[in-house]
Known about the structure:
CATH architecture of the largest domain: 3-Layer(aba) Sandwich
Number of helices: 8
Largest sheet: 8 strands, mixed
Helix content: 25-40%
Amino acid sequence: MEIRRLQEQEISMAQEILPGSWGADLSSLMGKNMNNKSFQPLGAFKQGKIAAFGQAFIFDKTAWLGNISVKSELRGEGIGSVITGELIDFCWSKGVRSINLIATEMGERLYRKLGFAEDTVYLFYKGACSEEISRSVKKIETHDKCSILDINYRVTGEVKDSLLTEYLAAGYKYLNSNNEITGFFLPEFGNGLILAMDDEAGGELLKYKHMNKTGITVISEENESGVNFLEDMNFTKISKSKRMYLGEYTCWHPEKTFCRGTTYTG
């Protein structure tokens, strides 16, 4: 079996082995990151045909693995363990201290064998909101960039400036009574990333996200305020998954994460 970096002409083959329910768009993802040295898309090839795919994203001293999938008829042969091990080695070689991922029920057993530990449980809610929207929710402006990226670091403990910057122009901020930015919402980033320094900002941004529009929000069970808001709005809990880590624990604040972004960058 050959493990190597996926080539552009092989993207469609890798896409076919990913579960449709993941909603992954490898063409777009790799189109944006093909020349990014901190992005590693690997394919496992058996007799010249793709057998598995997985990727790694590095953000300074942290990394995220994602879209790890083995062709259905080849599962149980240890291929998933091999390609995940290769991604882990890539991350360590780049000086990463903490590797994170979101585990499906099927993948959790594999990741535990590789040394990953549970961090938190993400809950998936679906619904819409018809409540009045706060006037404190405003469009993000160019001069807000530093404040938004600072909130991201304070909440996630990770430096993702290059990744998030391209989504800021279509994003929204929450201003408190002192006209300070205390939260933000990036609707075009994954499920619609919402990070907030307090419950007021988080709740108002959740309302704005779901204003007369049915969608999915993924939130840690540790964010009691956010979970209660969604439950009070009669949102439906449709599934759950575990966030796991390997190496050093990254200090972050699940109670300030009102919707995680994507499975492959947290």
